[in-house]
Amino acid sequence: MTWEDVDDILFDGTVEQINAVRCPECGGTLRFEYFKENRNRETRCLSCHTVLKAHKAHYIPNFEIYSIKGTAK
Fold first, then answer.
1. How many whole angstroms separate alpha carbon 32 and alpha carbon 52?
2. pLDDT for 29-50, tens place per residue?
3. Residue 72: its pLDDT value, please?
4. Are 20 and 35 in contact (CB under 8 A)?
5. pLDDT, tens only, 51-70
6. Measured between alpha carbons, how far is residue 16 from residues 10, 38, 55, 68 in Å?
7. How far is CA 63 from CA 2, 40, 73, in A?
8. In sequence order, what E strands does the chain have?
9. Would you say the C-alpha torsion 62, 67, 70, 73 has a positive or negative sign?
10. Rounded to 5 degrees, what are φ and ψ at 16?
């Protein structure tokens, strides 16, 4: 899995897929947030501390629609 795959899941995945997504670098737990006011988002690995920031999403990601903030088990 790549970070691009993670993005695909966070935007278009099912609840089950989003809850199961893991850091592609270390397999750690992810925390993700969407900032509605500027359409930015942040994905952070709680294990290896990798942080990815993205700006100006074209549409609201499914993790926000489903109110999932990450920390999947």
1. 9
2. 999 999 999 999 999 999 999 9
3. 47
4. no
5. 999 999 999 999 999 998 87
6. 11, 27, 25, 11
7. 18, 13, 15
8. 30-35, 40-45, 51-54
9. negative
10. -65, -45
**Predicted TM-score (pTM) of this structure:** 0.89
Provide the terminal-to-terminal Cα distance of the chain, rounded to the nearest Å.
Answer: 17
Cite the DSSP H helix spans in 1-73: 3-12, 15-20, 62-65
**Amino acid occupying residue 44:** R
Exposure string over 14-41, b if 16+ CB within 10 A, otherwise e? eeeebbebebbeeeebbebebeeeeeeb
> 40: which 2 tokens?
């930015």
Beta strand pairing status for 40-45 and 51-54? Answer: antiparallel
